[in-house]
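Narrative summary of target 7.
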Amino acid sequence: MQLIGFYQEMDPRYSPSWGGSVPPPESGAGSYAVRDIVSYLKSGYPILDVTELTTDVIGGAFRVPGGSSVLTDGQYVWREDLAWYVEGYNIDLPREFLETARSHGFRTPPADHEALLSVSLEVSRALGFQQKP
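Modeled conformation, tokenized:
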């Protein structure tokens, strides 16, 4: 499991290794087709729903209901609002993630229930959520 797009401006408790600071606008220009990556990000499997409204930390241009909810493709894990930053600002994304999305034709690959459950539990632990005994 690899966390991407968990930027420190969104929550200071996020580890710098999950994304560091939000990349500058247009830092991803030319490295990916925005529409394809937005589609891929939005098609991820939901593994953690959070009912809060997030606000754009770059320019305040948008709000995303459930923006800190978490999606996955089975390998990478990202926040719901990452697609909005890609679409609105064309921010830089990890090269390895872009290659994975391209290799799957920008369609989320199939994942079984057990694999998604495992990723969900791992993400919950990483974000500091505790399971009830």
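The CA atoms of residues 71 and 89 lie 20 Å apart.
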